[in-house]
């Protein structure tokens, strides 16, 4: 008996000396066989945008959108500033965005950074390379590429491929033609040598362009069989997950996701578009993505792990053996942690991800005090904290949703659940002249979108997307929801009225 107690104490002291004293346990995910512990690793951060694992120092380095590169010690949980990048232009979604840490066995180690700058009123997206020393110093910045930027749609993520080339996913800089123009470097996946030159074996000789037709890629990762995956924000519909092949055209802005081309013109029939392997309508705003190859959590082996902003969740996308299809999708932490921005897997099979609750578009109830945070998922023997069960995602089954549900799916990410919007960014729909006003004008806004209007003395930078893909009954349900709620008292629309407005607009489809 006493021997047993001694043995128990001995084992206990070994385990407790390994466990890190300042772990804050949030909960345990029950996967049946495995249990996965969710802990908080760091807090009080300011919109961390990209996480990278440093193999030399066994720590995490991360970017914050305003221009900081910081380092998280995984043992002590101490966070230190490595460098403030000097010329970052930060406003709304612009700033210091994606990065990639390159630590080859031989040769210099580099940190590649993507960030926006502003000169003479023009915004640019820049790809920089810093030398990253063994002591985590950042030295000798070198500008590798500078392309057009905008107040939004600047992407971006960077990875070092298995072929030791850089892949840079660039945004379309909110332009209508960049993504389809093979001479423009926006709305593309670019393939680049680590010194900034064009690889001799690129698919188009003397061009960085590797694949095109993208709107705003936020996630980029590579699987075991060299397949590159991206996650991308659609406009009002069809967020996408794509499997990237050289020279393929992913269609933006001519087509959205799995929908047919917007204009049925002959010149489009000559083009071949590559459809996404998964798309989401209503949109979820997919962000960072990591491929899970670890054996620690066998249930997740050969899956993509995706953070989402709008749907405030972490998703596990199980891949088929060949990595070319998604066979299952599970949703974790729905509405528990807020907006999630970036995710990585560490060599030991742990997963790290971060929140983005202090960014330009906070969701209801966020930011919480001490946001933003970095979290860890690691295999555990004993459950602790709250019990978290993954929810299996089911694709929208086509049944008609209520005006309130439709508003939550399509409008509330900008105008907010209470209709009050964000002052200066998204107009309030509360007690609104337009919402209460002439029916045809209101239907026009919904069906065609709106831009560059001055509303109550405010000029809006962002534009309102077109929702002409909605069925007549759905459009009527949304309009009636906003006209009779949010302190508005407008008369309601019939489905026939909507049909009429569509005919007048030539939107009859
Ligand atoms: C991506 C963000 C976004 C989404 C999603 C969005 N809107 Fe808007 N909306 C805007 C912006 C920005 C404006 C102002 C546009 C401008 O004039 O430049 C606007 C303007 C409006 C206006 C005019 C307000 C006024 O006082 O003149 C109405 C009405 C409106 N939106 C309704 C909706 C409805 C209904 C939905 C959902 C079907 C929706 N919006 C979805 C961004 C959005």
UniProtKB/TrEMBL annotation:
Read off the InterPro entries from this record: 6-blade_b-propeller_TolB-like, Cyt_c-like_dom, Cyt_c-like_dom_sf, Glc/Sorbosone_DH, Quinoprot_gluc/sorb_DH_b-prop
SUPFAM superfamilies linked: Cytochrome c, Soluble quinoprotein glucose dehydrogenase
Top-rank taxon of the source lineage equals: Bacteria
Which positions fall inside the Cytochrome c domain? 398-486
A family per Pfam? Cytochrom_C
What's an example of a GO molecular-function annotation for this chain? metal ion binding
Q: Which UniProt keywords apply?
A: Heme, Iron, Metal-binding
The protein's name is C-type cytochrome
């Amino acid at each position: 008996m006493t021997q047993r107690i001694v043995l128990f104490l001995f084992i206990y002291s070994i385990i407790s000396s390994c466990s890190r004293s300042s772990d804050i346990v949030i909960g345990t995910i029950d996967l049946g066989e495995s249990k996965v512990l969710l802990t908080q690793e760091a807090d009080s951060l300011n919109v961390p945008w990209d996480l990278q694992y440093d193999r030399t120092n066994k720590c995490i380095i991360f970017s914050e959108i305003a221009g900081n590169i910081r380092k998280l010690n995984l043992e002590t949980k101490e966070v230190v500033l490595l460098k403030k990048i000097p010329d970052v232009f930060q406003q709304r979604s612009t700033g210091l965005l994606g990065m990639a840490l390159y630590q080859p066995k031989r040769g210099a180690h580099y940190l590649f950074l993507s960030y926006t700058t502003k000169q003479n009123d023009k915004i640019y997206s820049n790809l920089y390379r810093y030398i990253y020393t063994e002591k985590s110093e950042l030295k000798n910045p070198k500008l590798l590429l500078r392309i057009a930027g905008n107040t939004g749609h600047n992407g971006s993520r960077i990875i070092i491929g298995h072929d030791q080339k850089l892949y840079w996913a660039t945004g379309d800089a909110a332009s209508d033609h960049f993504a389809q123009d093979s001479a423009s470097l926006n709305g593309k996946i670019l393939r680049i040598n680590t010194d900034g030159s064009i690889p001799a074996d690129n698919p188009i000789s003397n061009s960085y362009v590797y694949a095109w037709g993208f709107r705003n890629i936020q996630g980029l990762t590579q699987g075991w069989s060299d397949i590159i995956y991206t996650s991308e924000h659609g406009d009002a519909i069809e967020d996408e997950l794509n499997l990237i092949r050289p020279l393929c055209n992913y269609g933006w802005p001519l087509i959205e996701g799995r929908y047919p081309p917007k204009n049925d013109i002959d010149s489009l029939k000559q083009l071949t578009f590559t459809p996404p392997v998964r798309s989401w309508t209503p949109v979820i705003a997919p962000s960072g993505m990591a491929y899970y190859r670890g054996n620690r959590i066998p249930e997740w082996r050969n899956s993509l792990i995706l953070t989402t902003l709008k749907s405030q969740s972490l998703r596990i996308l199980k891949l088929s053996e060949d990595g070319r299809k998604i066979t299952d999708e599970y949703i974790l932490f729905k509405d528990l942690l807020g907006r999630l921005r970036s995710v990585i897997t560490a060599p030991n099979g742990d997963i790290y991800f971060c929140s983005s609750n202090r960014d330009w578009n906070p969701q209801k109830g966020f930011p919480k005090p001490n946001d933003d945070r970095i979290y860890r998922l690691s295999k555990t023997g004993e459950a602790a904290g709250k019990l978290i069960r993954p929810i299996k995602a089911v694709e929208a089954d086509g049944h008609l949703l209520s005006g309130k549900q439709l508003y939550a799916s399509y409008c509330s990410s900008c105008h907010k659940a209470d209709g009050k919007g964000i002052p200066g960014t998204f107009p309030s729909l509360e007690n609104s002249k337009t919402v209460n006003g002439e029916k045809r004008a209101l239907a026009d806004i919904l069906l065609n979108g709106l831009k560059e209007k001055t509303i109550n003395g405010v000029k809006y930078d962002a534009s309102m997307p077109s929702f002409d893909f909605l069925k007549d009954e759905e459009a009527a349900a949304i309009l009636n929801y906003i006209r009779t709620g949010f302190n508005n008292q407008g008369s309601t629309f019939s489905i026939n009225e909507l049909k009429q407005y569509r005919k007048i607009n030539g939107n009859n489809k």
